[in-house]
Design goal:
The chain is of the alpha+beta class. A hairpin with a 2-residue loop joins strand 2 and strand 3. Helix 4 packs antiparallel against helix 6, helix 9 runs antiparallel to helix 10 and helix 9 packs antiparallel against helix 11. The longest helix has 29 residues. The mean pLDDT is 90.
Length: 394
């Protein structure tokens, strides 16, 4: 405990000295998020400074091994880093599907060569990844996917289509599910493969959403040649990798239910509704709704910490991420419903997208997809009923 107390003091001092003041303010737009990648650009000098200092410290992914650019911290130390960052409102230095999804799968299933090739580039923000899972006829029934990879010497030739590929038009590489044995049962003949998005035959087409923005894409593969050495895990056993990665994806998506670097709901609502003489939000009903939300948000944060602690202790349940994903995304929808309610008629303004009121309805509409992507709320409830609660007939 004394060692951890010392580590906490040192962490607090380092963050105070190295996190720019601008990186401790609530985020107001997508530009406040740094994704990394070959073509990445920093939106500000403080954003660059903060990322590079955390990268050099190994704290873009504090708990990954130092050999791969991580911080080499144990579970308790990494938890302290998260807590001390939260205490000063520090933003994440980078947001990355490589960190939140692919990295854990690489650490578990990757060869030594694959780990050394990809993990350091992820921690350094050099490569931006996207996920090739869903297809036009393979959504919730993902194992029915038809994108095929045919053997050709030392390579596979990949043909097919993916859909809802988040930020595919910005990604450098993709981790992708392909069918390598069409004669096998649908869960068995699937492989998990990695390849460069600049490979000949890869094209993307953004999908415009009702919010007016386009985080999703259709992705097409036309005779894309990929070395067989890029398969992660065992050929035809990619479903094992896919399921493991989905646990981390759902845990990541559940984090949308936590406030993170944004302002508390009560403060945002007070801007529009005002406060009474006692400093309370001047709308008793809205105040009660926000108080109820704040309690549930705190419960989600506590559950997230418990999930991490259980995983580190080897006691984690593989379906717990489904419960977290359901709760977090539904909570995020509640947050934005309250933001719309507190803004009144001004919250309907549409044009000013950055930090004005126009950002509010667009974000509210975007949250509707949170309970669909990564597994719908209905599917998540089914998993909880079957895998955790063991309900009859589930």
């Amino acid at each position: 405990m004394a060692d951890l107390d010392t580590f906490r003091r040192e962490t607090r001092a380092w963050l105070e000295a190295n996190c720019p003041a601008e990186m401790r303010r609530p985020m107001t737009s997508d530009e406040d998020t740094f994704w990394g990648g070959r073509n990445a650009k920093f939106s500000s000098e403080p954003q660059r400074i903060w990322f590079e200092r955390m990268r050099d410290k190994g704290w873009t992914v504090p708990h990954w091994p130092k050999d791969y650019g991580g911080g080499g911290l144990d579970g308790e130390e990494a938890k302290i880093v998260r807590q001390e960052m939260a205490a000063i409102g520090a933003r994440a230095p980078i947001t990355s599907f490589g960190i939140s999804m692919l990295g854990p799968a690489l650490l578990k299933y990757g060869t030594d060569a694959q780990k050394r090739e990809h993990l350091p580039k992820i921690t350094a923000g050099l490569i931006r990844w996207c996920q090739g899972y869903s297809e036009p006829n393979a959504g919730s029934d993902l194992a029915s996917l038809q994108t095929r990879a045919e053997s050709d010497g030392d390579d596979y030739i990949i043909n097919g289509q993916k859909i809802w590929t988040s930020y595919a038009n910005y990604a450098d590489w993709i981790f992708c599910l392909v069918r390598t044995d069409p004669a096998a049962k649908k869960h068995d003949g699937i492989s998990f493969i990695l390849f460069d998005m600049t490979s000949p035959g890869v094209t993307t087409k953004p999908i415009l959403l009702i919010s007016g923005r386009s985080p999703f894409c259709e992705t097409f593969f036309d005779n894309v040649r990929v070395p067989k050495a890029h398969v992660l895990g065992t050929v035809n056993r990619g479903w094992d990798v896919a399921k493991y990665l989905l646990q981390h994806e759902r845990a990541m998506i559940s984090g949308m239910g936590e406030r993170g670097g944004s302002r508390p709901l009560g403060q945002v609502a007070a801007d529009s509704v005002g406060s009474d003489a006692q400093g309370k939000l001047d709308d008793a009903l809205l105040r009660a709704q926000i108080a109820s939300f704040d309690v549930d948000e705190a419960a989600l944060a506590a559950a997230a910490e418990r999930m991490v602690d259980l995983a580190k202790a080897g006691q984690g349940h593989p379906a717990f991420s489904s419960a977290m994903k359901y709760y977090g995304t539904e909570l995020n929808k509640r947050r934005h419903e309250l933001l719309m309610s507190s803004g009144g008629i001004n919250a309907l303004e549409w044009e000013s997208e950055r930090s004005g009121e126009g950002a509010r309805p667009r974000a509210w509409l975007r949250t509707k997809a949170n309970s669909i992507e990564g597994g719908t709320s209905e599917v998540m409830l089914g998993i909880v009923a079957k895998r955790i609660l063991d309900l009859p007939g589930a």
